[in-house]
Write a structure and sequence with these properties.
By secondary structure, the chain is α/β, with parallel strands linked by helices. Helix content is about 35%, strand content about 20%.
Length: about 240
């Protein structure tokens, strides 16, 4: 069985109970089809200067910065513009909230590239991101990324639990959380077992976390899982 087939079989995002709407798939294709319209809007390092962007719905990507999980490669693939986000070999490069518009002006939604939460957990998460997810009315979903070869670590599980507590406290009315497993192309023969362990660990740490989407953006070869991420984004934004 190929790695791609294994990932498709083990990815709960392919479960029809979670993804049954053909209309939402069509909507995602329409919104993301004009890759040239994806555009960097602004960046902020200060909670007092968070922009108001026509009140477009927003999704945010939050990563574990000690391990390079391929966030920039994934977001470039999702937005359809190679090089829109700088790809660094050094983890934790993102230090600001970076806002990217999706869709021709005035846009359909905003993707927010956010700082990772660091190797020691919430103490490095920062007041900026904490303020953002606590107060941002436009925020619809937080995506938390994990590297398939690295698996989950204690800090990852702690952050999942923290986000899960916020979702439960609001009854999911403020935002939802979904995991994305990246770099699945780097898994070896035991990759299926690794993915299953990660899925179990995610659910144990955060029962409200939506089923993980498995992705890969290899330097050479075709990416996979990108359409599912796009569909999840449009679904979360009610588009």
């Amino acid at each position: 069985m190929s790695l791609r087939s294994c990932c498709h079989r083990t990815n709960p995002a392919f479960n029809t109970r979670c993804f049954t709407s053909r209309n939402s798939s069509t909507s995602a294709k329409i919104i993301f089809r004009d890759s040239g319209s994806a555009e960097f809007l602004t960046a902020t390092a200060n909670a007092s200067s968070l922009p108001r962007l026509n009140r477009l719905p927003e999704v945010s990507g939050d990563i574990f910065s000690r391990a390079n999980v391929g966030k920039s490669s994934l977001l470039n693939a999702v937005l359809g513009r190679r090089g829109l986000l700088f790809i660094s070999k050094k983890a934790g490069r993102t230090q600001t909230l970076n806002f990217f518009r999706v869709g021709p002006h005035p846009g359909k939604l905003v993707v927010v590239d956010s700082p990772g939460y660091g190797s020691r957990g919430r103490s490095e998460w920062g007041a900026l991101f904490n303020h953002y997810i606590t107060n941002r009315e436009e925020l619809r979903r937080i995506y938390i990324l994990f590297s398939a070869p690295h698996g989950l670590r204690d800090t990852d599980e702690a952050m999942l639990a923290e986000l899960d507590a916020q979702v439960q406290a609001s009854g999911g009315t403020k935002f939802t959380v979904q995991a994305i497993i990246t770099r699945a192309d780097q898994l070896r023969a035991t990759g299926r077992e690794q993915v299953e362990r990660m899925k179990d660990a995610i659910f144990q740490a955060a029962p409200t976390c939506l089923p993980p989407i498995i992705t890969a953006c290899p330097p050479r070869g075709l990416p996979f899982g990108i359409d599912l991420v796009r569909k999840s984004i449009t679904d979360s934004c009610g588009l």
